[in-house]
Amino acid sequence: MTKIHFRPYNPNQTVLFPQRIDEDIAENDPVRMVDALVEGLNLESFRKLYKECGRSPYHPKMMLKVILYAYMNNIYSCRKIEKLLHRDIHYIWLAGYEKPDFITINRFRNRVKKEINEVFTQTVVLLSSKGFISLNVEYIDGTKIESKANKYTFVWRKTVERNRERLMKKIHVLLGQIDDVIAREKSSENNEEVEFTPA
What we know:
Layout: H1 30-39, H2 44-47, H3 60-72, H4 78-87, H5 89-95, H6 102-111, H7 113-130, E1 137-140, E2 143-146, H8 157-191
Antiparallel strand pairs: 1-2
Helix pairs in contact: 1-3, 4-5, 4-6, 7-8
């Protein structure tokens, strides 16, 4: 009988030179775009929201990157974001191995809500203009509306302006939905009862 030789497997093996985490993230991954976008922002307006005394807070760029990337992936729960900061390579890389808990994420989000909404709006507009996301096809009550029906169509200036207004309305609706999810999460946290079990 032939003996099967498996590759060596040791999950607890230590390495002399640890691998950089960003080597496992593709160059064209959307997480890199979020990172570059936030790095290019001027966040001086965030500084005035912090006090000079007390414990050092997490860097607002890091927190903003994590929250924007979560929003981009339709994740609005602070608890889910906290879990992802422990296990998802993209979130770990964005946070630079920092692991803020859900309360910290929620406090930051509440403190800079207006700024996050502005940055999120700018991000959607920028992604749309660069072609990363498409806003040409919209589904309303099962009806498909395309701005480019065939290759011979062209778009009038007023149509472009109207579509921009629609985009802003959509972003406003999305931000309202995010607020609803956050409110539901807060109410469920307040209603939770702590159960103690014997050890």
